[in-house]
Amino acid sequence: MVHYKLHYTCVPCRVSFKRFPLDSGAPPCPNCGRALVCAGHDFAPPPRRDTDAWSAVAAVLGAGLRYEGLEPCGCGKRPRFRPRTGAEVRARLAVAARTGVPVAEALARRDPAVPEEDD
User: Fold this and answer.
1) Beta strands in 1-119 (DSSP E)
2) CB-based contacts of 48: which residues, under 8 Å, 6+ apart?
3) Phi and psi for 96 in degrees, rounded to 5?
């Protein structure tokens, strides 16, 4: 069985690293020392200067979601949808507040108003 590295990120520093998972918890950020957050196998970090995209990453990771494809091992070729901008996050949060849908579920929808079915 092949073990793939996971993407770990520090949102306040806006950096990302690929590391093997540790049994002792999340590795520390080399810049600030805080624990890195596991972002999943399919995370593509935005440019460091793009604060709007990093705020979307913070919302997704804060909701407990990860950037994964259909397969948890990272070999799936169709990654699940995650918002990339602050506007996409705000639209999904508004739908979640209006309809009572959990925030994590609303953030995972490609169209915020239409529930998605698992394949």
Assistant:
1) 6-10, 15-19, 37-40
2) 14, 15
3) -65, -40
What is the distance of C-alpha 49 from the center of its chain?
Answer: 18
Looking up tokens 């990654």 gives: 79
Flag whether pLDDT at 3 surpasses 80.
no
Strands 37-40, 15-19: pairing kind: unpaired
Contacts of 108 (CB under 8 A, 6+ apart): 65, 80, 81, 82, 116
CA distance 25 to 34: 12
**What is the CB-side half-sphere exposure of residue 30 using CA atoms within 13 A?**
6
Model pLDDT for residues 61-111, shown as the tens digit of each residue: 999 998 887 565 556 566 678 899 999 999 999 999 999 889 999 998 888
Which residues fall within 8 angstroms of residue 111, CB to CB, at 6 or more apart?
A: none
